[in-house]
Specification:
By secondary structure, this protein is of the alpha+beta class. Helices cover 29% and strands 16% of the residues. It binds a DNA duplex (21 and 21 nucleotides) through helix 3 and helix 6.
Length: 351
DNA sequence: AAGGAACTCAACCGCCAGCCC
DNA sequence: AGGGCTGGCGGTTGAGTTCCT
């Protein structure tokens, strides 16, 4: 037996709203409010509509201070930045953009912003041809943890990463929290499910965070799908890890360019249940901002200094790349020597 | 000018969490 | 405690519009 429908489907109108219906709904809500019950509202308002449909119409179109129309560059940046951090949680993203609805942002992402990323695919494919697809199997959760040093050696990659400036990392609890002025995204702290089996490639960025405050080693590995190809073939990859190719003006702004922004998702693995309870990482999705480029037809390693929200290449005379407002995060690692690789504000990517 | 393709976006669908009885 | 109801959400659809050939 299926669930009971929320309304009498045969007796409700579907499809586009007429101006008369809009007026009725608007007038009713302005006069009486929603009454805390959308299901009962259409009958009270004299509308032959499903309550859910009324709610949607009000929230997405009729309520005051809704903004429609072109998205600004700044909004682009915010959307891309948040998408890279939290994925397709449109309501959370919309909360950061006054006047925008989650539906608007979702549509905008699906029809415009995402395409901007895909237009960069040929460039990435060219670049990725330099990387043989060497299967790399991440260590499954067990007591025999890879240290991040081993992990990183295996991946031949190391880097530091940064978080959006409304987030902060509590190294003592390995949790991510959100500044008060962004309380609408505090539910970022919801636990992250264990990562699915994932084949990583040599050109994947990987990272590890494997100590807690008591220097107990637990296994935590990152997932970062290699690539744009995987994203291209399976959009769910966007949820697990991705690269977003942006522009010289900052990730995902409208103009073309060569910078890219990656996302790292952390699975949290603990050596036992107790530690999991104690150190459960609520959600750790960090953004990596890096700038890679091709020199003489060969992909080169490139290091950057992230300072004042700008990425400055350390070794080459490249243009400075403006980033979204990221704060930097010092990677926490049990191996003290390893922190030398993780100088705060430094972003290195080697392959 | 016509018609097919591509795009846009409002609206719908169904799942899920939380509340209430 | 648990079942039903509701609101909220993300994914998807499809009608209307614009673009392209």
């Amino acid at each position: 037996m299926g669930r009971a429908p929320c309304c009498d489907k045969a007796n409700v109108k579907k499809g586009p709203w007429s101006p008369e219906e809009d007026a009725k709904l608007k007038e009713f809500i302005e006069k009486y409010g929603t009454g805390g019950n959308w299901i009962a509202l259409p009958q009270k308002a004299g509308l032959k509509r499903c309550g859910k449909s009324c709610r949607l119409r009000w929230l997405n179109y009729l309520r005051p201070n809704i903004r429609h129309g072109e998205f600004s560059e700044e909004e682009d940046r915010i959307i891309c930045s948040l998408y890279a951090s939290i994925g397709s949680r449109w309501s959370v993203i919309a909360a950061q953009l006054p006047g925008r609805t989650d539906n608007d942002i979702k549509n905008y992402w699906n029809t415009k912003l995402k395409k901007k990323l895909l237009t960069m695919l040929p460039y990435f494919q060219e670049k990725s041809s330099f990387f043989p697809s060497i299967p790399f199997q991440p260590q499954p959760p067990s007591n025999d943890h890879l240290t991040s040093h081993q992990f990183l050696n295996n991946s031949s990659s190391f880097y530091t990463f940064s978080t959006p400036n409304f987030m902060n990392v509590d190294n003592t609890s390995n949790s991510l929290f959100v500044h008060e002025e962004h309380t609408s995204v505090t539910d970022l702290q919801s636990p992250v499910p264990p990562p699915p089996p994932l084949q990583l490639h040599a050109n994947s960025l990987m990272c590890n965070n494997n100590t807690d405050v008591n220097d107990n080693c637990y296994s935590s590995y990152s997932m970062c799908n290699s690539p744009m190809q995987e994203y291209y073939h399976n959009s769910s990859a966007m949820k697990e890890g991705m690269f977003m190719f942006g522009s010289g003006n900052g990730a995902c702004s409208s103009s073309e360019g060569g910078s890219c922004m990656g996302k790292i998702s952390y699975g949290d693995y603990y050596k036992d249940h107790e530690e999991k309870q104690k150190y459960q990482i609520k959600q750790e999705e960090y953004q990596l901002a890096l700038h890679d480029h091709v020199l003489g037809g060969q992909v080169q390693s490139q290091s950057f200094m992230i300072k004042n929200n700008h990425v400055t290449p350390l070794q080459n005379d490249l243009e400075e790349v403006k980033l979204p407002n990221f704060s930097n995060y010092l990677f926490h690692d049990g191996d003290e020597n390893k922190t030398t690789h993780y100088q705060k504000g430094m972003c290195s990517y080697h392959y």
